[in-house]
Design a protein that fits this description.
Layout (H helix, E strand, L loop, with lengths): L2 H9 L5 H4 L2 H14 L3 H17 L5 H11 L3 H7 L5 H19 L23 H11 L3 H4 L2 E4 L4 E3 L15 H15 L7 E5 L5 H6 L10 E5 L8 H8 L5 E6 L4 E2 L4 H9 L10 E7 L5 E2 L9 H16 L3 E5 L4 H15 L5 H14 L5 H15 L1
Parallel strand pairs: 1-4, 3-7, 3-9, 4-5, 5-7, 6-8
Antiparallel strand pairs: 1-2
Helix pairs in contact: 1-3, 3-4, 5-7, 6-8, 15-16, 15-17
Length: 390
């Protein structure tokens, strides 16, 4: 294909327009313009810039970059396929445009104009086709949710987290029954079943947050996405849920370390979001929250004063939020026996060379100085002893 025809076909791309409007494709078009106009200096500059952009993104050529861009950019055709829709006209147009991108990926731009410059080499190959792209959309969806599994809501946009803090299941100690209950609810969500919102409550350091984050490490939950948001952004949840509606992935909205003062009106907003809003509940979104407080809403003795009717109403109002969570999972401190068992297991795992009696005695002394029999306290004790051991 002549370079002028390739350039003209690229400029007519419509369905994949967001791909065409990226810096990489913009520089590629400028390179074609320079080669067609036989402007060696402009061609050299565009080649160097294109090479930099591709290598900066971890690619050796345009073909690899295009494969990522086509999969992970949201387009009308990608949304059509991920939702299981059908549109012959749109599919035909997308196929024609993809053929144009393939031609760009395999057309080696080895013009005599460039031979006078010591330019770095690029590879010109496309190891993908229209069927491969369609199959990817069908299995994974398109856009940012196909590329990343963890996000943070900033109040204005979703910020992808390329490398989330997601512990492997074997890194978590104790509370197997609780963790399994959390995972079972997520698995039911992936299977399209009706699920409940989940509250993990209990003592600090027991691994509530780690349990939720570890879901991303489970191979049986690959279709799961987790979006973390702060209490300050609770009012954004309806907007966020609408954004996720119709997506093939399943989403956990993660509210970590949640607690409210009695006079904090925002907990009423969460009550409505969980249950009671006129807006329908989506079947691909569920809320997981963690809290050190069982009832989520702090209430002082002074706030409970009044006649018996007012007292009952006050208690009902402040406890009604937690009742919106259909699954409530307690994470309580370990018993002394369970704590010592955990310390012993951690010592064996990390190679701490202490006799059983000495390990037990030191663990008891540590617990006295660091109140709380939790996995966090146990790990801190082991880390201290390993450092002392050298």
């Amino acid at each position: 294909m002549k370079l002028s025809l390739l350039r003209d076909r690229l400029r007519c791309v419509a369905n994949f327009r967001p791909v065409l409007e990226t810096p990489v494709m913009g520089e590629y078009l400028r390179l074609l313009d320079a080669l067609i106009a036989e402007n060696p200096n402009a061609a050299c500059e565009s080649w160097a810039t294109l090479y930099y952009l591709l290598k900066d993104g971890g690619h050796d050529g345009l073909g690899g970059w295009l494969w990522d861009a086509l999969r992970f950019t949201e387009t009308p055709y990608g949304r059509l396929v991920e939702q299981g829709g059908a549109d012959d006209s749109l599919s035909a147009a997308a196929g024609e445009e993809l053929a144009t991108f393939q031609m760009a990926a395999i057309t080696e731009l080895s013009s005599p104009l460039l031979q006078q410059f010591p330019l770095p080499r690029l590879t010109w190959i496309a190891g993908w086709d229209f069927d491969a792209l369609t199959d990817f959309y069908r299995a994974n969806g398109c856009g940012v949710f196909a590329r990343y599994r963890a996000f943070r809501w900033t109040g204005k946009e979703l910020l992808p987290i390329p490398q989330p803090d997601s512990p492997q299941p074997w890194e978590l100690w104790g509370y197997q029954a609780q963790r399994q209950q959390v995972a079972d609810n997520a698995k039911a969500l992936l299977e399209g079943k009706q699920v409940n919102h989940v509250l993990l409550y209990g003592d600090s350091g027991t691994g509530k947050s780690a349990t939720v984050k570890s879901l991303l490490s489970r191979p049986d939950l690959q279709g799961l996405r987790i979006i973390e948001l702060d209490k300050d952004h609770l009012e954004d949840i309806p907007t966020l849920v609408r954004l996720l509606d119709g997506r093939p992935q399943k989403f956990i909205l993660f509210l970590d370390d949640l607690a409210f003062e009695c006079r904090d009106s925002t907990y009423a907003q969460l009550k409505t979001i969980l249950e009671g809003s006129l807006e329908r509940q989506r079947d691909n979104v569920v809320i997981y929250a963690t809290s050190n407080r069982r009832n989520l809403v702090r209430q002082t003795a002074a706030e409970r004063q009044g006649d018996e009717m007012d007292l009952a109403e006050t208690i009902e109002e402040t406890t009604s939020l937690v009742q919106r969570f259909g699954v409530r999972i307690p994470y309580l401190s370990l018993t002394p026996k369970e704590f010592l068992q955990m310390v012993t297991a951690l010592a064996e795992t990390y190679g701490l060379t202490l006799s059983p009696d000495e390990l037990r005695e030191r663990a008891k002394q540590w617990e006295l100085r660091h109140p709380g029999r939790t996995p966090r306290i146990a790990r801190q004790f082991i880390a201290y002893e390993l450092d002392a051991q050298g």
